[in-house]
Amino acid sequence: MTTDVMIRVRGLEKSYKDLKVLEGVDFDVAPGTIFALLGSNGAGKTTVVKVLATLLGVDAGTVTVNGYDSATQPQHVRESISLTGQFAAVDDMLSGRENLVLVAKLRHVENPGQVADDLLERFSLTQAGGRKASEYSGGMRRRLDIAMSLVGDPPVVFLDEPTTGLDPQSRLDVWRTIREFAARGTTVLLTTQYLDEAEQLADRIAILHRGRIVVNGTLAEVKALLPPTKVEYVEKQPTLEEVFLAVVGTQERR
């Protein structure tokens, strides 16, 4: 199904017993864009992703993905998405190529071997394709994990903290990978605690705080929330980190 809004969330509420995690979350994600959802630990980012992926039910609100309602058409939503969690879902006993072939077979994709080879090449893993995943570096495992999520070319990909625990070079490799498949038209929803990651990758940024979206806009719009600082006639634009801390601090005071 094609749509002018690939992900639409309205009035999303979710509680765990007496703990309210989401309290009326609203946002849209346009097709073929990277949307970064920022927030501190416990802000509810992973809960949002699980709801979007139909892994959790909601207490209130509506969610549509690729034009399908997650409550009434969950199977269609699942067929439209792929989810990469905080920890790589890689089978260490299999080679990189075998991991990809397995996923392709589970998704009933034609020519699983060719699909695996194409993804290994696309993610610069061809030479390592025959080695066990247990021998891969952190960055290689993460690239393989993301490659597995793209089997079948899903129109929507959820990346939950994709670079947590990676070294700087591995982070850059993953960033390059995300840019490349977003450039091919894939819609990406990315959660992260790394503000520089959002600055580098996102077309649009939302800050989730205490269960609500408190800021939502482009990088330029978000930075415009704070005035530039001038030092000896040199204009300094606020960083996304400064905006994030200022917004969260304001909400805390309220």
UniProtKB/TrEMBL annotation:
One of its GO terms (biological process) is response to antibiotic. The keyword Transport applies. GO terms for molecular function: ATP binding; ATP hydrolysis activity; transferase activity. Keywords: Antibiotic resistance, ATP-binding, Nucleotide-binding, Transferase, Transport. InterPro entries: AAA+_ATPase (IPR003593), ABC_transporter-like_ATP-bd (IPR003439), ABC_transporter-like_CS (IPR017871), ABC_transporter_ATP-binding (IPR050763), P-loop_NTPase (IPR027417). Residues 7-235 form the ABC transporter domain. It is a peripheral membrane protein. Belongs to the ABC transporter superfamily. This is Glycosyl transferase family 8. It comes from Rhodococcus pyridinivorans KG-16.
